Amino acid sequence: MASELRERLEAARAEVARLEHEAATATCAELGHDWHCLGGANCGCFDDACCSVPVHECRRCGACDYGENEWARDQIAKCPLPAEYGEYLATLRALEAQGGAAIRSLKEAKDG
Ligand SMILES: [Zn+2]
Ligand SMILES: [Zn+2]
């Protein structure tokens, strides 16, 4: 008997949680999410960029914006380096790699 009551209690709790979540979701749809800052994420303006944008979670329904927000757009607009710089860096790395290979083969030719 006791275990049956516990089961019913568990089911009722799950239903309450489900309804609370539903109510929260409906409230958010109506009023907008109640964001609070979870922390920062890389802004992704270019490879290796280290600027960060805020990531928010809704206090009410638990939704996450994954850094898709107006603050992030502001930050990206102010990013210190443009996207082209990422391409420039990639080109530079490729040239460095080629240069390294050339130096190694010269050394091998000299030593061998
Ligand atoms: Zn919400
Ligand atoms: Zn950035």
Structure description:
The model has no long low-confidence stretch (mean pLDDT 89). This protein folds into 2 domains: 2-81, no CATH class; 83-112. It is 60% helix and 13% strand. The longest helix is centred in the N-terminal third of the chain and has 30 residues, at 2-31. It is elongated. It is built from 3 helices and 2 strands, in the order αββαα. The N and C termini lie far apart (87 Å). It has a two-stranded antiparallel sheet with strand order 1-2. By secondary structure, the protein is of the alpha+beta class. The site of one zinc ion (ZN) has 6 residues, from loops.
Ligand catalogue: zinc ion
Task: Give Rg in angstroms.
Answer: 27 Å
Based on CA inertia axes, which overall geometry fits? elongated
Average pLDDT metric: 89
Task: Provide the fold topology.
Blueprint lengths: L1 H30 L3 E8 L9 E7 L11 H8 L5 H29 L1
Antiparallel strand pairs: 1-2
Bound molecules: zinc ion (2 copies).
Keywords:
60% helix, alpha+beta, binds zinc ion, single chain
Outline:
With 112 residues, this protein is of the alpha+beta class.
